[in-house]
Design brief:
With 495 residues, this protein is mainly β. It has three domains: 245 residues, Jelly Rolls (Sandwich); 102 residues, Jelly Rolls (Sandwich); 108 residues, Sandwich (Jelly Rolls). It is 1% helix and 47% strand. Strands 2-8-7-10-5-3 form a six-stranded mixed beta sheet, with no helix packed on it. Strands 1-12-18-14-16 form a five-stranded mixed beta sheet, with no helix packed on it. It has a five-stranded mixed beta sheet with strand order 27-29-34-31-32, with no helix packed on it. The longest helix is centred in the first third of the chain and has 4 residues.
């Protein structure tokens, strides 16, 4: 059956994050600023309501502004400056000794957000310098945010939040307690065209910008994570778009106990399964996964109870959308018939259309074993099932036929001689079949075989028969040859 971890919903700290990674400089290469330069630094303090450090300033004749702050926690921290026209701003980060720690690796340009992600340590003091490139001047807003940790050790976490203004970016820190894989799904509200970027502890972007679905479309990405390492997930809007969204973090840490039901597990049996669950609130999403036990067509059904207008999506192991359905309306059943490959993992997402909520049943009907290929006659070795060829007592002759339908197919016949004497068997292909003929006595001993005719040519067998004696005939094909054929038996008559 499906295994679905407990869904925990938390409100994460709002965060702004950079458009590019930063250069982390080796210690011996870091610039050291004079103490006098830092004496003008403006002290900053965290806003307790938002969990952010917010500042405003203006680049005037001095060409730069200094700020200082003390980190309130360990972990990845985002530093962003939003300049106003005509300012082309950049940033520099220093430690308490005046050594340059980091600067943005890519310059964003005039009036474009500039930022970096760096690893901060609780209790340490940092200095930030905002400069105007090419002597540009103007006002700016600055945000420093060490987003709160998203704890997925007990299962998936869903966060409802918003990009509040043009150019706003939200960040979430993730430090898994186990190695495995985490799937991140971003569900924008309305027409918001949202994006996801993921950074490692060094501030380097480790995924391309995930923005495949356009306006209002869900974005999904799966990443391999290592126990104890910190990852930063950044949510932003294309071209500065803003609006509400829900982002969920769904861990797949593998089997954590002997029964495979430890919290956070997403692995399921490979056969047919049924799960009973609910969309508990607007923006809630449930994630399931399965491994196809065999290739074929699997049927996935989300059957909603009254009140829920279920939407159903299926993704591959790389987070690419394979199929989606949302057409049945309130209390309807959404059905996806999906071609699956044996041994591959697939992910199923169920949510509610237009903020609908309610219970549902999710069913997976695994591909059934394909029917055996058609075979007109028993194969060689199936003595008891061999097709009997009737022999006329008056003439000693008999007729039959068949086809080699595929490579490795063989056909087996049996007949009983009407009289004693010489008996001829002819295998006559109807097309290009390169046939092989073998005859056996009633004890299963090979008594004659022929494979000399070539493609489309007849094969002849000569037997010495005794009245009432049973023989077996096997028709085979050379190599990959296939096709239909006739069997003619010309034997001694009874009289």
């Amino acid at each position: 059956m499906f295994t679905k971890s407990n869904r925990i919903t938390r409100k994460a700290t709002r965060a702004s994050a950079p458009a590019a990674p930063c250069d982390l400089l080796p210690l011996e290469a870091r610039t050291v600023m004079s103490g006098a330069s830092f004496s003008t630094a403006i002290p900053l303090h965290m806003d307790q309501a938002s969990g952010e450090i917010l500042a405003t300033g203006q680049i005037t004749g001095t060409g730069h502004r200094f700020f200082k702050f003390t980190a309130d926690q360990d972990g990845l921290t985002a530093l962003t400056v939003n300049p106003k026209i005509p300012l082309n701003a950049t940033l520099e980060l220093f430690d308490s000794q005046g050594r340059l720690l980091a600067r943005p690796a890519v310059r964003a340009g005039t009036a474009q957000p500039e930022g970096m992600i760096f690893e901060a340590f609780e209790g340490r003091t940092y200095f930030v310098r905002v400069l105007g490139e090419a002597a540009t001047r103007g006002r700016f807003n600055m945000t420093i945010d060490g987003a709160r940790e998203m704890d997925v050790s007990d299962g998936d976490v869903a966060v409802r939040d918003a990009l509040d203004y043009k150019g706003d970016q939200d960040g979430f820190n993730l430090t898994p307690t186990r190695s495995g894989r985490v799937t991140i799904n971003l569900d924008p509200t309305g027409s918001l065209d949202a994006q996801i970027r993921i950074y490692n502890a060094s501030g380097a972007q480790i995924t391309p910008t995930i923005d495949r679905k356009g306006s209002g479309g869900d974005e999904t990405v799966s990443i391999d994570v290592t126990k104890g390492y910190t990852y930063r997930v950044v949510v932003s809007g294309r071209s500065g778009a803003y609006g509400n969204y829900t982002v969920s973090f769904d861990p797949h840490f593998g089997y954590g106990g002997s029964n495979g039901n430890a919290p956070g597990n997403w692995y399921t049996t490979i056969g047919s399964s049924t799960a009973y669950s609910a969309i508990d609130f607007s923006g809630d999403e449930d994630l399931f996964s399965f491994v196809a036990g065999r290739s074929g067509v699997a049927r996935i059904i989300a059957d909603a109870d009254y009140g829920l207008d279920a939407a159903l999506r299926v993704y591959d192991s790389n987070g690419y959308l394979l199929a989606s359905r949302d057409s049945s309306g309130n209390a309807g059943a959404e059905i996806i018939d999906l071609s699956v490959a044996s041994g591959r993992r697939y992910y199923i997402v169920v949510d509610g259309y237009r903020a609908s909520v309610g219970d549902y049943t999710l069913s997976l009907l695994a591909p059934t074993a394909p029917p055996p290929p058609f075979d007109d006659h028993a194969d060689a070795g199936q003595w008891n099932d061999a097709t009997r060829i009737p022999i006329l007592a008056s003439s000693g002759n008999g007729l039959s036929g068949g086809a080699i339908e595929r490579t490795s197919d063989t056909d087996m016949f049996k007949f009983t001689a009407a009289g004693s004497g010489t008996l001829w068997i002819r295998i006559n292909p109807r097309g290009s079949l390169d046939s092989i003929a073998r005859a056996y006595d009633s004890h299963g001993y090979l008594i004659d075989s022929e494979d000399t005719g070539g493609s489309g040519a007849a094969e002849w067998l000569r037997l010495d028969a005794v009245a009432g004696e049973t023989f077996y005939l096997v028709v085979d094909a050379y190599g990959s040859s296939t096709g239909a054929y006739d069997v003619e038996i010309d034997g001694p008559s009874y009289w």
